[in-house]
Amino acid sequence: MNPQLVTELDYDRDVLHGYINQNLPRLNICQETIVIVVFNTVTQGEGVVFFLDGRGGSGKTFEYNVLLALLRRDRHVAIEVASFGIAILLLEGGRTTHSVFKIPIALGKDSMCSIPVQSDSAELLWETKLIIWDEAPAQHQHYAEAVDRTLRDIMQCPDSPFGGKMVVFGGDFRQCPPVVSRGFQATIVFTALSRSVLWRQVRILTLT
Length: 208
Description:
- By secondary structure, the chain is α/β, with parallel strands linked by helices.
- Helix content is 38%, strand content 15%.
- It contains 8 helices and 6 strands, in the order H-H-H-E-H-E-E-H-H-E-H-E-H-E.
- Strands 3-2-4-5-1-6 form a 6-stranded parallel sheet.
- It is globular and about 50 Å long.
């Protein structure tokens, strides 16, 4: 069997039940509303792309972990990635975007990820119900666009963003922007995820 898929399905359901019972009541009204919206969208199989906008300390990571526990309890595959290595330490089972999506180091506007269609990584993405991408504003828009093209190819859905997969970007555009060597302010702003052609497909959820 696919070892990557086995790992994502091997979470202890008793532990997940305990985590949910302990932490679900701790959500505030805004957090609970967003969890319900995202969870229902996933279970209904809708390929929606969300951006969870919230300042540091607003509870984004807490909300991610509750969502992951709810989906994994029901034996759904949910993967979480982050732009920074330090950010994944707060996510249950988190990994970097490069590790999961095999994003090339030399990235251009037409790049694709190094994931063959007939591979374990492709099968994992095929079975995935939800992708959570934390600190997305800190990476160049080409990262998200490369993953988008790759998923459209793997899922054989060329007309659906991310191949019809449910994606939740998260972060704060007020914090660290993408790093552009010797770039001017206008150059840096142009590289942001919010300036990507994908942004018009994104629904914004706000945490206060």
